[in-house]
Amino acid sequence: MKSNKQRRLEIKTRRRKRAEVLKASPYGIYNYRPLIYIEADHLELGHNSYYQALPSYYADKPFKCRDCGANEIWKAASQKWWYEVAKGYIDSTAVHCRDCRIKRKREKEQQELHMEVMAKQSPHPNEVFFRKRY
Ligand SMILES: [Zn+2]
User: pTM for the whole thing?
Assistant: First the structure.
């Protein structure tokens, strides 16, 4: 008789192994079979227009990162969160791997910080332009 903890550890190990195999193989995403299915809650998907086909469940979904080309799995639980909690549209899908998402987020934050600093330092270019001319 196995305890729940042991069983959970086994499942985790199996998932990690599959993920490693998938990452190593360039064709991994094409013969990937999902392990996890999570039921969709159509009440939470009400922000989509009624004629769009709504999924009855989410399954782990492999994809290639648009920036670096890495194989990555969009987890069923993350899909549920994206569509039902963050209210993402049903046509939207994951395009960036975790590393690239973090990188992009950091770049965006730096850009915003830069803009804030610039705004404090100097007036808007339009202001300068009008002050000079009139
Ligand atoms: Zn990437």
Answer: 0.62
